[in-house]
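Standup notes
- HV: blocked on the assembly model, inputs below
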Amino acid sequence: MHRILVVEDDERLASVLYKGLIGEGFSVTMATDAEKGFELFQSVKFDLILTDLVLPGEDGIELCKKIRREGPDIPILMLTALGTTDDKLVGFDVGADDYLVKPFDFRELFARIKSLLRRKMAGADSSLQEELRYADLLVHLSQKKVIRSEMEILLTPKEFNLLVFLLRNPEQILSREEIAKEVWGLEFDTGTNFIDVYINYLRKKIDKPFEIQLIQTRPGMGFILQKP
Amino acid sequence: MKIQLRITLLFTALSAAILLVFMLLIYFFSSQNRTEDFFNTIEAEAVTKVSLLKESGLSPEILQTLYKNNRDQILEVEVAIYNQNFALLYHDDVEVDLVKETDSLLQEIRDKGKVRWKQQELQVSGFVHPVGSQTYLVTAAALDRQGFKNLDNLKNTMAFLGLGGIVFLYLIGRYFSKKSLEPVGELSAEAQKITAKNLHLRLREGPDEIGQLAATFNSMLERLETSFQAQQQFVSYLGHEIQTPLAAIRGDLELTLEKNQSNPEIYHVLESLLADSQTLSKLCGDLIDLAKANYDKSIIQFAKVSMEALILDLVGELLRQQPEAKIHLSFEEKEDEFPQIMANPYLLSIAIKNLLENSLKYSSNGSCQVILRNEEKCLVLQVKDQGIGIPEEDQQRIFEPFYRGKNKGFAKGTGVGLTLVKRIADLHKTSISIDSEIGMGTTVTIRFPIG
């Protein structure tokens, strides 16, 4: 059973979250402010942290930063409300893995929690691993740094997740559905060329400036990270 | 006209008018005095001649010779003397008779005792002058050459000084108005530094009128700052304090909905409650965004934004909310990559999201196309659908707040989305064009200037 820490000061929302998450089969611990949340994080081992952005005293961003210093790989999902974030979360470099705008769909909340947990599990076998490497491509997981041929490449969080997924499954054909599910938590039919365009966009950053093209298309099947 | 120039001109005109009035008065009185003095002078001269003739017994010929010899050099008065019966007793020069003494004229002199008049430039005086037992009627006439010359000189001097004075007054006026308006300029320069970003700044106050004006401005700024903060607080209050209970309501509804799938009555009630709360939170979110987009431009931060990354993140998010949406992306970059544009990423993504949601909502099969291409000097974004189209009469009005066109029965909406899109486009100095045909679909085009 996965243990989830919920940091939310609004009693009503906290109780609904508690009910909903228990109903989904999680073990849930509640905290009403960032200080209590951080204490709990230090004493109990959680699989995921769900925190509100606006909290009395220290806010969710502070909490995120503190937790990141101690446990760089615990997934953090942040709840935000429009108008309170002052555009800070657009770049999303506060250390949370994902965020959800209030009010949200509970099914979506559960889907995201499961997607974060699945990603954590996937990384668990290699969780001791600090780096992923393929050919001359190197990714520092905790620093979220991408380097190819000694050149640093700047990626958005989503691009980074996509690249990590490819690096964790090198030389395997990955279907669009797999990528969509793993990276975006999406269950979609093929009515959109979204994944193709995204891969193309990632290629421009990862492959285009270099001689060897690592991300390749397998028509009708998907994509593969492979040396030609 | 600038106030400084106006004050200068007004000052110059007023003081020039005063100067002119004084000069006219001086001239007028000088002229009066000259006339009066000259009459007195010629009368005295005539009296002298009478006494020379009648008392000293000087011969008339000598006097006439003296007169003829002198009249071109010095002031000479032509004198004629009559007795009581109007008979001519003496005349300085009968051939050049300046004054035609008629009987009626002499009569008038005798009756009034003294008559003064002007004959062209000549001044003439006729008066009764007793010598011993005899009484004479004397006329004296002369031209006041020196007097007129002096008057002329006075006129020239005053004209010269007057013109010079006006120039001088203008310069003084300019200096004076500049000096008196300097504090206003300083005030306006100070006030210009205060924008929405630093509304806490205040103007320097002082004891004078300008200082009082600054104090008035400051109290106005105080109120402005308060209401500005109130607006921002309201927006974040709306954001957090309303969305949080809404989130709780929706969570509860969703959880209860799942438990009551077997009871259709409760299920349908809960379902419509859930739909209502979704509408409410969408409207709330739209209003918050609209309020943010209405902030002063100076507090909205612009940064270099990659349009591709922004659209991709947005579409990923949208697909998560609407997994059934068929969004086709066409990034038609040429050789070189898409240039980055200066934008506020949050507001820009709100605008594009609204366009996409609209397209999906009003398209017949839940599909739309996003086209991004670079043209010369601009980046073109198009959102295209094959939906029901927008009636022509609505096309102009759909950007108005809370306006919902003929298609409102087709899908739910708050009437805020496109207003927001327009406002955000304005903030980014771009223009939106709509190309739509009923039953064929709609294409919305936004052109972002590069560089």
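- HV (later): unblocked. Residues 3-54 of chain B form the longest helix (52 residues). The mean pLDDT of chain B is 86.
- Next: hand off to the docking folks.
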